[in-house]
Amino acid sequence: MIYCGIDWAEKTHDVAPVDDSGQLLTKRHITDDAAGWKILLDLLAEYGDTEDAPIPVAIETSRGLLVTVLRTGKRQVFAINPMAAARYRDRHSVSRKKSDPGDAPVLANVLRTDMHAHRPLPQDSDLARAVAVRARALQDATWNRQQIADQLRSLLREYYPAALAAVESWKNGLCQPEAHQLLKLAPTPAKAARLTRTQLQAALKRAGRQRGIPAEAERLREVFRTEWAHQPPLVEDALGRQILALLVQLEAACAAADNLAEAVEEAFPQHPDAEIILSFPGLGTQLGARVLAEIGDDRQRFADARGLKAYAGASPITRASGKKSSITRRRVKNDRLNHAGCLWAFSAITASPGAKAHYRRRRDNHADWHAAARRNLFNRMIVQLCHCLQQGHRYDEALAFPAPPAEVGTAAA
């Protein structure tokens, strides 16, 4: 049995295959291009790599063209956590020395000794991987949009509270096109106080509003003409320039998030698992796509539901030593899936009577805080999702949250 370790870098990579006794067979330094990848594949073939019996490879990343080249066929590629690789390095040297050519054999020996303890990259379909790219990009764009909106809000609080009062009743406030048009038209409170009804109505029409324009323009005019505290004129004008600069970034972030949302809504329904995922309460197209992006469609990825719960950070972790024992939430997890799970559980409380009753029991009978009860609900629902995906069944409220025995007896009487 041959194992291969690759210490990757931006422009070059170090390759080191070892045999089942840990003997280093050779070392190669390849470039990150087509010529280097051909050398790598020829090297693997030289040591017995075939289509039916490929050599497993360990590398400290799960992305990039090099990983794509290695994943062709049936080859197992193991993405080793750099922290785990550092611990393995200490087993071979106590001097704490480190080098890129020396890390490649360490990664190969990780597979030789403990391949059973590491998870290979899942064999997800191309459509699932495409959905994952779009869903993760949408999540990043949404976070970026919120970050810029928070910066804008913090700046407005310093000198322009009237703008915050004007957009307070709108959903997503500063992210709305109406807010952008108003701030472009009046980046300072002094200019806002001089706006006429005609100018306000024109700004709302440019933003795409079609109904209630006169009434909304009148409300904005009253807010802007209310007496507020002011910064000195020069400072106010400088802050107005800063607002316009932030506004350009916010508009670009909003446009990117909207475009990616359309891309997710186009790709996700095409996946065969979309029907099952969308049958669960609290999961819409975008949130369902984020869940699919992180769990994939490789049914062999998780040995059982316990592995999926640990991966999602839904199940608690026990730390016991001597007479001390504690049960805490899991910190090492897939943060994207955990974040999606929190939103899912929060939405399910209002979308599912069974989920709401389960949440209330955790709060009332077990004295859980809101976050703990919500995490417990996510822990239960992700097991149900795992079962439905494995069996090909849609969500059934009666099976997911059966009535307690007392309620069943009352109904029968």
Q: Secondary structure elements and their pairing?
A:
Blueprint: E1 3-7, E2 12-18, E3 28-31, H1 34-46, E4 57-59, H2 65-70, E5 77-79, H3 82-92, H4 100-114, H5 126-159, H6 161-167, H7 177-185, H8 189-193, H9 197-206, H10 213-225, H11 233-267, H12 274-278, H13 285-295, H14 305-312, E6 317-321, E7 324-328, H15 335-351, H16 353-364, H17 370-391, H18 397-400, H19 405-412
Parallel strand pairs: 1-4, 4-5
Antiparallel strand pairs: 1-2, 2-3, 6-7
Summarize the structure.
The protein has 413 residues and is of the alpha/beta class. It has helices at residues 34-46, 65-70, 82-92, 100-114, 126-159, 161-167, 177-185, 189-193, 197-206, 213-225, 233-267, 274-278, 285-295, 305-312, 335-351, 353-364, 370-391, 397-400, 405-412, and strands at residues 3-7, 12-18, 28-31, 57-59, 77-79, 317-321, 324-328.
Describe the structure.
There is one protein chain. This protein starts with a strand and ends with a helix. It is α/β, with parallel strands linked by helices and 413 residues long. The radius of gyration is 28 Å and the shape is globular. Strand 4, helix 2 and strand 5 form a beta-alpha-beta unit. The model has no long low-confidence stretch (mean pLDDT 90). The protein has 19 helices and seven strands. The longest helix is centred in the middle third of the chain and has 35 residues.
Mean pLDDT: 90
Strand order of the largest sheet: 3-2-1-4-5
Broad structural category:
alpha/beta
List the total number of helices: 19
What is the H/E string? EEEHEHEHHHHHHHHHHHHEEHHHHH
Q: What share of the residues does DSSP label as strand, in percent?
A: 5-15%
Q: How does the major sheet shape up?
A: 5 strands, mixed
Question: Quick one: how many beta strands?
Answer: 7
Task: Determine the fraction of residues in helical runs and give it as a percent range.
Answer: 55-70%
Q: If you compute it from the alpha carbons, what radius of gyration comes out, rounded to the nearest whole angstrom?
A: 28 Å
Assembly classification = single chain
Segments where pLDDT lies below 50 for 5+ residues?
A: none
Distance between the termini: 67 Å
Shape label: globular
